[in-house]
Amino acid sequence: MEILRDYKVGIEGVCGGSCDCATCHVVVAPDWAKRLPEPREDEIDALDTLPLIETTSRLSCQIIWSDDLDGLTLTLAEAA
């Protein structure tokens, strides 16, 4: 989420990364989604509050950047 904010992509991230608001919802490309760690229960709970999610929906604040993610493809989810 912070990288998206730094590049002024337009991610909201109201809670500042505490996994409480789901305003940093992104949809990760399927080939990349399987490379990410499974979401924790609090992330799943936050995603469950959204009206529309995809099988590869994630909260960008919960994606921890590493060099292995260079080239990560994702789409900003539409605001509800």
From TrEMBL:
CC cofactor: [2Fe-2S] cluster
GO molecular function terms listed in the Swiss-Prot or TrEMBL record: 2 iron, 2 sulfur cluster binding; electron transfer activity; metal ion binding
Alphabetized UniProt keyword annotations: 2Fe-2S, Iron, Iron-sulfur, Metal-binding
Keyword Iron-sulfur: yes
Domain of life: Bacteria
Residue stretches making up the 2Fe-2S ferredoxin-type domain: 2-64
GO biological process, one term: P450-containing electron transport chain
SUPFAM superfamilies: 2Fe-2S ferredoxin-like
Family, similarity comment: Belongs to the adrenodoxin/putidaredoxin family.
Name of protein: 2Fe-2S ferredoxin
Record organism: Bosea psychrotolerans
